[in-house]
Amino acid sequence: MKRFEKVYSQGTLDVIEIWLDTETGVNYVFHRNGNAAGFTPLLDQDGKPVVTR
User: Where does 1-53 show beta strands of DSSP type E?
Assistant: First the structure.
């Protein structure tokens, strides 16, 4: 079983993706623009991680 599952993807050069940690249910945002990239938990309006499943 894969630990992370891509659930959303947008763009080709300026990429935004949502990844789900299948063990914890926490959603993460991945953003790539050229050679720079970042991966961080997706937060709700109260600053708490978005958890699904």
Answer: 4-10, 14-21, 27-33, 36-41
